Amino acid sequence: MAQLAKLDDIVALCKRRGFIFQSSEIYGGLASCYDYGPLGVELKRNVREAWWKAVVKMRDDVVGLDCSILMHPLVWKASGHADKFADLVTVCKKCNTRSRVDHLADHHGHAEEHTEHVDIDKAAATPHDLSRKVCPACGAVGQFGAPMAFRLMFETQMGANVEDTMTLFLRPETAQGIFVNFRNVLDTTRVKIPFGIAQIGKSFRNEVTTKAFIFRTREFEQAELEFFCAPGTDDEWYEHWKAERFRWYTDLGIRKENLRFREHDPDELAHYAKACVDVEYRFPFGQGDWQELEGIANRTDYDLRQHQRGMRTVNDWMAAGRDLTAIGLKEEAEDYLSGPLSYFDEQTRQRFIPYVIEPSAGVDRSTLAFLVDAYDEEEVRGEVRNVLRFHPALAPVKVAIFPLVKKDGMPETARALYDDLKRRYASFYDEKGAIGRRYRRQDEAGTPYCVTVDGQTKEDGTVTMRDRDSMEQIRVPLDQVRTWLSEKLDV
Ligand code: GAP
Asked: Which atom of ligand 1 is least distant from the CA of 222?
């Protein structure tokens, strides 16, 4: 219970301090959609940049990409999403609420939320005993209708003229944009296998149950890497990326005891995966608490092979009146190894369809984990201090600059320092209110350092430097503030 309260505290702080707002709030809100406010947008941008730095910039074997959200409909036929990206749902006969079958619990336990998506054609034929399951909306027991498949992709129409209007899907993952550009990247860069292509961007899923603030929403951002390697080396790269991705979270301050791996059981694996592990975080909600933060999958050569088949299907699709439901993918050609998505390794003189290791993270979900892990309340001189102990790389504001009082030249000196520092670091200038309150406001925003220009500054040219976590204050010469900060912040 205490942990549930903690999520409420975080939601309240996010609203109060402008991290995260409900979408369309002045119209009563739009369920499961959120807007990032002035502090939140900086935090999320820093999460993105930390990911890009670790996965792309610091490596010689990964390049970036930014694909469009709308893609050719055959992409989703080839990837399997058009036929398989659905949840099994049931409707409560008492209150008409639709629930995911795998999320239903009985009176004693909680449901495992790990079931994979279902095949749209075959879903109804699978037997399910729901006689003891409880409706999460009204509490009725065993009052469910027959389970059915619910497609998770959002549809939209493209084209202004009736005759060429086409039904498209908003992408449910960014990964497919990478696969369909595999050849383009190979042909335009010097990459050689093993190498990766990374992308950060919005994805959309019409989730049946949304959950816990920004944890599961219908519009969200993913940070995905598709790492292409030779078959036979895939297990090694899978282990490599597991270690790398775990370290990314702990390097950015997530406590090890709140992070763990959970390998998927074979019957839980997605249709494309040979192996999959979730990096789980101990979120402050649910009865199990441990929830997926990121998935790392061995996707084998499934996607590239499927897109080779998709490329050969285009004409059939045109002939079928561009109707996705009316066509099947062409059978795999016998000479698929000479197809455009195969790879020739000059060193081994072998041609193969590369295997893919995919670490797939949620930017919003990671942002929530960083918020939860950084959040702290402590009593200081009889008062509660709320503090976000962000890693400096993630803190929305790196340094706040204050004049102690609004006179004796202090604001002028503080402003000049602010003008200098803001060119390098996200900085904040504040001259309003008591100094203690100004410190508290920055603690709540997670600002690692505050600099105060005071009476002594005029005498000896030093300022007070205050540390967010220890609240210790030391004096630093004004002309050394920048160097001092760079030692602490450029990490
Ligand atoms: N390309 C593989 C893929 O999309 P996934 O496990 O479905 O795999 C990867 O999604 C990550 O994306 C998840 O671990 C989670 O962090 C994030 N994610 C997925 N659905 C989400 C949702 N509805 N809301 C917020 N984040 C989500």
From this structure: 12
